[in-house]
Amino acid sequence: MSIETIKMPHLGESVTEASLSLWIVKAGDQINKYDPIAEAVSDKVTTEIPSNYTGVVKDLLIDTDMDVAIGTPIMTIETADAGKSPSENGNGKAAKMQTEEFIDHLNEEIDKAGSQPIERTTESVNRESALHSDKEKGHSPRYSPAVMRISQERGIDLSEVEGTGKHGRITRKDVLQFNPAAKPEAGMNTKVADTVAKRKQNDQPDRMPAEQEHAHKGFQATEYSVPADGIRKAIAKKMVQSTTEIPHAWMMVEADVSNIVALREKTKDQFREQEGVSLSYFPFFVKAVVQALKKHPVINTSWKEGSIIYHGEINLSIAVATDEHLFVPVIKKADGYSISGLSREISRLAELARRGKLTSADMQGGTMTLNNTGSFGSIQSMGIINHPQAAILQVESISKRFVPTADGGFKAADMVNLCLSIDHRIIDGLQAGRFLQTVKDNLNRYSSEEDLY
After folding, report:
1. Which domain holds residue 345?
2. Do 329 and 444 belong together in one domain?
3. What is the tens place of the pLDDT at every residue in 56-84?
4. Which one from 134, 194, 323, 428 is the annotated catalytic residue?
5. From the candidates 29, 67, 424, 451, which is the catalytic residue?
């Protein structure tokens, strides 16, 4: 017997600390190598931590919601046959099984990325079947925090859900797609069962997202509370840090984007056919901001221990809202993209956010943030800076207004408000105003289809 220690793993570049949102195991549990033991939260991304060993959980060394440095011991586990070489464990049999376990683990990670799996041997397939048999013999299943939360919110009995994950594990998608009324009835063949399931599903009203369900309950006379999940806690921590450490200042200007509205209306159908994504207004603003950051590098900075850090790359964070959370993935080296390229990259990151597939790498390295608040009708807002960045720009909704012309008359124009929040330790009003004026000038330049590419 040997006591091994599991530490807080490296969760991504520049991540120095993280917290556990939930322990999946408890002292005394028998676990296998690569079984999930806890869920960690950093940069608004939730990551399952796998076990490095097979054995019995001895001690949980930290509490949930406790920020600890990467590499901090979080759990001890009692293992058997520790320290033996592969030859001492049956002429290399243990080493072979570990290799197959590692391949299974890699395949799980590759599946998440949508790649082709590594080819397995017949022996490893048989071994996986044996693991399924162990589950059927009564070993208690383990569920991820996301699966537990969704099942509780929707009143789903997980014993009725068929898992499609590794070793038959129930995934978040399995729970979201589960419909008790759609279970096949005895004696039905697959085709008939599918038809019945679809009919029953069409007869049922759509479920509301979790937050909408909570909001609906809020109209009841009884007061109740809902525990914040790990991502919401990470958002709260980030917002408190930003408003506590950064002295915010705000500025707003209005811009005439009639040329962009006309260009988009002219090209959006052809663009959709050629590029496979819709042409929205947002990439135009992203491009204008990126070009302005080159001229005004003081906006592309951060404050660190009394020094101003000028970032060598323009990595633009974009805010993406889902029904329950706000994510801020990063367009890396954004100055290397055309408007069409930005459209594809924004679409890709937004889709990953909606599917809950963003990684820590997708969220790190941002040097300024752009938020498309106009997508839900906002006309003026004051954004909280994404710490440790120095600025965030809110792009409000475009509206038709009468504006004065140089000859003393009036014209109907498509106008938008641009609301900039700045870190006043670094950026002054004059610098902010010049930056916004450059953004406006850049927006005025987009009038030809050639500007898209």
Report:
1. 246-452
2. yes
3. 999 999 888 788 888 999 999 999 864 44
4. 428
5. 424
Q: What is residue 213's predicted lDDT score, i.e. its pLDDT?
A: 53
Domain count, the chain: 2
Query: What type of residue is 338?
Result: S
Q: Does the active-site annotation cover 132?
A: no
Split at pLDDT 50, 70, 90, the class of 195 is very low
Q: Residues 126-182: pLDDT tens digits?
A: 444 444 444 444 445 666 666 776 777 677 888 888 887 656 778 767 777 787 765
Whether the predicted pLDDT of 285 surpasses 50: yes
Q: Encoding tokens for residue 32?
A: 């296998």
412 in the same domain as 266:
yes
pTM comes to: 0.63
Annotation marks residue 424 as catalytic: yes
In this structure, the number of other CB atoms found within 10 A of the CB of residue 226 comes to 13
- Neighbouring residues of 92: CB distance < 8 A, sequence distance ≥ 6: 86
CA-CA distance, 111 to 116, in Å (whole number)? Answer: 7
Largest CA distance in the chain: 93
Q: Is residue 89 part of a domain?
A: yes
- Domain with 309 in it: what CATH number? 3.30.559.10
Q: How far apart, in whole angstroms, are the C-alpha atoms of residue 20 and residue 67?
A: 8
Q: Among residues 138, 160, 182, which one ends one of the domains?
A: 160
